[in-house]
Amino acid sequence: MKGMHHIVIQNKRIRFAFSIKRNITIIRGDSATGKTTLFSMIEEYGNLGKDSGVQIQCDKACVALSGKYWQETLENIHDSIVFVDEDSRFLKTKDFAKRIRNSNNYYVLITRENLPALPYSVEEIYGIHCSGRYMDTRQVYNLFYKIYSETNPGKILVKSLITEDSQAGFTFFSQVSKTRGICCENAGGKSNILGILQKRLLDKQQKETLVIADGAAFGPEMAHISQLLRGNVNIKLYLPESFEWLLLYADILNKPSIRQKLEEAENYIESEKYFSWERYFTDLLMEETEDSPYPYDKSNLKDFYLQDKIVQKVLEAMAPICLAKE
To answer: Are the CB atoms for 24 and 124 separated by under 8 Å?
Structure first.
């Protein structure tokens, strides 16, 4: 499955309307915010159809997944939008993560917990907002809002840089940092960033630090890190989809046609092939450079990508972030 899909789920009392565009969407919120109601309505419709009093409008089938035999049920669900509630214990298991990989479904996961086994985007974590409650004969109109909508920092004089990975992204930003007198460290994986920041916050001489990570799969880390950063103005996050996305967005290849694939990525990324969008952008960059003198290799970044003109394009694309010399 690919593309954006608009969903309306309603009965005489309540209405949900939202759109999803990735294979994994997270709905988060406290009790009594409508999460369980949403799942129950889909489940009731699946059991009773129109007799449930629920109406579902979508170009894809919407299915509630639960129960002891969820594995067998999931095997028979294809090209659908699958909803899973937090009461389902399997939601947090590695088995569930393994089974939805290479799936042609989209998944809407209703949970207050982080799911570290799944690579979901920081951009696709939502809460449910109620616009008002009326008499039972009136509808309650609900819509989703992004919980983490402001992840990019404003202009900042960076004195310390942390990159998520130790491959191409670190090679690039390490080189940039050397010419600007900035300390650059690789975290060796997104799950290590929280621990590094916790240690740094114990340092009273904490420098202005910028964390650069792949936003396409950083969702599981956001709750803890955003809580840590509240009130810590010296640490900022920059979360592009991935380093490869950033190179493409900076148009370092002088191919304006690529921009549409970035701006409308959901129309090009097939969920069955790409469990996380970051892998798509890596493949796209490799495909666009494979016949050139500078084929992209994530594990061995060529000198072409470290040229001054390329570096300048990337830094301009990162605006309003400023990696300036001290």
So the answer is: yes
Q: What is the DSSP code (8-state) at residue 157?
A: B
Distance CA 30, CA 37 (A): 13
Instruction: Check residue 235 and report its DSSP letter.
Output: E
b/e 67-100 (16+ beta carbons within 10 angstroms → b): eeebeeebeeeeebbbbbbbebebbbeeebbeeb
Identity of the residue numbered 129: H
Ordered structural domains, the chain, with CATH: 5-146 (3.40.50), 160-317 (no CATH)
Integer angstrom CA distances of residue 72 from 85, 106, 151, 181, 197:
17, 17, 39, 57, 42
The rounded mean pLDDT for the chain is 88
Task: Provide the pairing of β-strand 106-110 with 24-27.
Answer: parallel
25 touches 108 (CB < 8 A): yes
- Res 320: pLDDT: 77
Structure-token pair, residue 166? 């130790």
User: What span, in angstroms and rounded, lies between the C-alpha atoms of 315 and 311?
Assistant: 6
Mean pLDDT value of segment 62-79 = 96
- The b/e string for 189-215 (b: 16+ C-beta within 10 A; e otherwise) is ebeebeebbeebeeeeeeebbbbbbbb
Residue-by-residue DSSP string for 289-325: HTTSSS---TTS--GGGGSHHHHHHHHHHTTT-B---
Q: Express each pLDDT in 267-303 by its tens digit.
A: 999 999 999 999 999 999 999 999 999 999 999 999 9
Judge contact between 212 and 173, C-beta under 8 A. yes
Confidence of residue 25 (pLDDT cuts 50, 70, 90): very high
Please give the Cα distance from 13 to 35 (Å, whole number). 15
Q: Which two tokens stand for residue 252?
A: 């370092």
Q: Given phi > 0 = left and psi -120 to 50 = alpha, else beta, which region is 93?
A: beta
- In this structure, are strands 183-186 and 160-163 parallel, antiparallel, or unpaired? parallel
- Cα distance from N-terminal residue to C-terminal residue, the chain: 48
pTM score of the predicted model: 0.90
